[in-house]
């Protein structure tokens, strides 16, 4: 919980209106709820939050239309979790931080499938996840944008 302010600040800095590529802007209370149910991995640099990787249960996302569209395109296994959003601060990108947070997640949640979506026009994220060995399994269109669905095997 002591990282919550830093997570929210990084999320803010990466919104589309500030030139960012995050699809979601989650309220702090929702992030806190996610943390209480599933791991939220944080990377720190000089004491501040430089990256985060959130995860959540399917049940927590029952009211999120874009997640429902993703799971309609690819349902996955019964105990699969929802991976993301993931974000690394601009100055720290390309140094393997996303990869390192993913490795930590795999250590904490080793035997469950993770399902995520990435906008088709986000090559940095598609490439970074491809490098992690996460495979594309489906695609869908939501609110006029094209998304790829990916699965990290359990
Ligand atoms: C996607 C993101 C989390 C990746 O984090 P990262 O720590 O830079 O990723 P890593 O360093 O682990 O992986 C880097 C790989 O991504 C690829 N990559 C990074 N920036 C890229 C870019 N602008 N274009 C294409 N590929 C890119 C590189 O191929 C790199 O692999 P390489 O080392 O072989 O060159 C980060 O770019 C980010 O936070 N973006 C803004 C928010 C966002 O779009 N989140 C994802 C929403 S689905």
Provide an overview of this structure.
The protein is α+β, with helices and mostly antiparallel strands and 154 residues long. It has a domain at 4-110: Gcn5-related N-acetyltransferase (GNAT) (Aminopeptidase, 3-Layer(aba) Sandwich). It contains 5 helices and 6 strands. It has helices spanning 4-13, 28-37, 65-73, 97-108, 123-131; strands at 41-45, 48-57, 81-88, 114-119, 135-142, 145-152. It has a 6-stranded mixed sheet, sandwiched between helices. β5 (135-142) and β6 form a beta hairpin. The longest helix is centred in the middle third of the chain and has 12 residues, at 97-108. It is globular. The two termini are 27 Å apart. It binds coenzyme A. Coenzyme A binds at residues 14, 21-22, 84-88, 93-99, 118, 122-125, 127-128, 131. It comes from mine drainage metagenome.
| pLDDT < 50 stretches | none
Beta-strand percent range: 25-35%
* Silhouette: globular
Q: Percent range for helical residues? A: 25-40%
State mean pLDDT (0 to 100 scale).
96
Q: State the separation between the terminal residues, measured CA to CA.
A: 27 Å
From the 3D structure, determine the CATH topology of the domain at 4-110: Aminopeptidase
Hetero groups in this structure are:
coenzyme A
Provide a short characterization of the protein structure:
The protein is α+β, with helices and mostly antiparallel strands and 154 residues long.
